């Protein structure tokens, strides 16, 4: 049974500190709360006007925060529902890490949809969230109006091939440094506070020097910090991604092989990526070929964070597709 615990926060004050009427067309109240999704408390934030657009984040093990403020303009024409997936952000963490699976997160999304009485939803998934969105569509297509898959992949084996090529393009010195740290094991090293996560040195080498060209192109985030990027759910990440480094997925995400199933998806689908995306454009092109009638947009001068590199083009593409 699904229980809804909802707290309403209204950030709608004038310059004089007086609360505006919630009927004011220029006011967008934020509803925050938790949904009890079959025993797991899932955090959500809801604001905006229009048909529901539920948004699932990447990582796995990140949170919805990295979408903000970039996706906020979508609230003018869509009711946005952001969630933190189980074990991530403000959602409940689980002692049994084996319960961190794509399949269980699909049920969490469905529980949120039901509890918030959203009816048919538009679903947007970015990066790992795009994997989750594909899995949801393959099981609960009847509950979707539109599907948006952003900078994601349909096959772990294919994504691992992309990582091999990514490593091959590194400078010999960087590749040798990363290989050495991976060979020695990535956990249990360094200072006491580093032993349950990657060391600072590995995060800088992998997420900084290795990944950065595939994250940003047009508008590199000046606040990007590969070490700060490690502020996430590590027990979840190791269970799903694996423990052997950034350039091979060998956790339970190995089960993600959807290519031969994508033809089942019949709802209107938009697929987007950057031309310099970590999730290589070839993966998006294949999804486009497999999902009949889908639309593909490859953003120019963009890495994995397309809504940062090309914010206006991204918002225009999503709104144009949905409306």
| CATH fold descriptor of the largest domain | Rossmann fold
Rg computed from alpha carbons, rounded to a whole number of angstroms: 20 Å
Total helix count?
10
SSE succession: EEEEEHEHEHHHHHEHEHH
CATH class of the largest domain: Alpha Beta
Tell me the domain tally. Answer: 2
CATH homologous superfamily caption of the largest domain:
Alpha/Beta hydrolase fold, catalytic domain
What would the principal axes of the Cα set say about the shape? globular
Give the biggest beta sheet: 9 strands, mixed
Beta-sheet strand percentage? Answer: 15-25%
Major β-sheet strand ordering = 1-2-3-5-4-6-7-8-9
Distance N terminus to C terminus?
34 Å
Q: What does the average pLDDT come to? A: 93
Assign the structural class, choosing from mainly alpha, mainly beta, alpha/beta, alpha+beta, or little secondary structure.
alpha/beta
Q: Summed up, what is this model?
A:
By secondary structure, the chain is of the alpha/beta class. The protein has helices at 102-115, 128-140, 156-168, 172-183, 200-210, 212-215, 234-240, 281-290, 306-309, 311-322; strands spanning 3-9, 30-37, 40-48, 51-56, 78-83, 121-126, 144-150, 269-274, 295-299.
What would you say this structure looks like, in words?
It is globular, with a radius of gyration of 20 Å. The relative contact order is 0.13. Helix 1 packs across helix 2 and helix 4 runs antiparallel to helix 5. It contains ten helices and nine strands. With 323 residues, the chain is α/β, with parallel strands linked by helices. It has two domains: 220 residues, Alpha/Beta hydrolase fold, catalytic domain (Rossmann fold); 91 residues, no CATH class.
């Amino acid at each position: 049974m699904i229980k809804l615990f909802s707290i309403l926060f209204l950030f709608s004050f004038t310059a004089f500190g007086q609360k505006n009427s919630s009927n004011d067309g220029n006011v967008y109240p934020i509803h925050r709360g938790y949904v009890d999704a079959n025993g797991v408390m899932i955090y959500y934030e809801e604001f905006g006007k229009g048909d529901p657009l539920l948004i699932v984040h990447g990582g796995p093990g990140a949170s919805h925060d990295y979408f903000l403020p970039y996706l906020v303009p979508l609230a003018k024409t869509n009711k946005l529902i952001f969630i933190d997936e189980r074990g991530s952000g403000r959602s409940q963490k689980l002692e049994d890490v084996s319960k961190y699976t794509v399949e269980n997160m699909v049920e969490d999304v469905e529980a949120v949809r039901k509890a918030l009485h959203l009816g048919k939803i538009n679903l947007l998934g970015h990066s790992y969230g795009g994997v989750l969105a594909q899995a949801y569509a393959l099981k609960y297509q009847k509950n979707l109006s539109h599907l948006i898959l952003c900078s994601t992949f349909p096959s772990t084996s294919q994504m691992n091939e992309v990582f091999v090529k990514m490593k091959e393009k590194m400078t010999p010195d960087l590749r040798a440094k990363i290989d050495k740290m991976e060979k020695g094991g990535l956990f249990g090293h360094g200072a006491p506070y580093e032993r349950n996560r990657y060391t600072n040195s590995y995060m800088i080498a992998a997420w900084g020097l290795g990944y950065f060209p595939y994250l940003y192109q047009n508008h590199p985030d000046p606040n990007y910090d590969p070490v700060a990027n490690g502020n996430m759910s590590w027990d979840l990440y190791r269970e799903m991604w694996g423990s052997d480094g950034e350039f091979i997925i060998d956790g339970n995400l190995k089960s993600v092989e959807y290519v031969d199933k994508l033809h089942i998806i019949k709802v209107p689908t938009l697929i987007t990526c950057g031309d310099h995306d970590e999730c290589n454009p070839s993966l998006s092109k294949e999804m486009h070929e497999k999902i009949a009638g889908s639309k593909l947009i490859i953003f120019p001068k963009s890495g994995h964070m397309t809504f940062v590199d090309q914010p206006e083009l991204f918002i225009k593409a999503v709104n144009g597709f949905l409306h």
